[in-house]
Amino acid sequence: MNFTEAEKYLKAADPAFIPVLEKAGTLKLPPPEEPFEALVNSIISQQLSTKAAATISQRVALTLENQIRPRQVLVTSADSLRAAGLSGQKTKYLYALAEAFRSNPQDYDRLHELNDQEVIAKLTEIKGIGVWTAHMFLMFTLLRQDVFPIGDLGIR
Question: Are 143 and 32 in contact (CB under 8 A)?
Fold first, then answer.
């Protein structure tokens, strides 16, 4: 993703961005996670503080023996995932996600080939994944540039 071009665009589109962008500097993102792992972390992060989500993500990764893959989720007991800090509902969501990826790997292996609306439609078929999660996936995993999550409370 070319953040330099994005900065130029924002500065030209609205001069109010100039001091903000100069103060913040050029954005640097970590490399994107694998799609399944990114969605696992998004589900974990839903309605939690960043710190709490990071702690639970680490515990879940350890519970999954750092094998954040559909099969590993499906063979891990709900009690183990709950002990890592997941709610019962989020545990069900992780199982739904893992089952979707296990049952239809060809659909999820080609998410990067789909347009934004197709990705949103495909992901929101999975219980526990809503439009916000799909937007986060588009921005931070597929590195799509023209996505703005208007439903995000932080942005509002």
Answer: yes
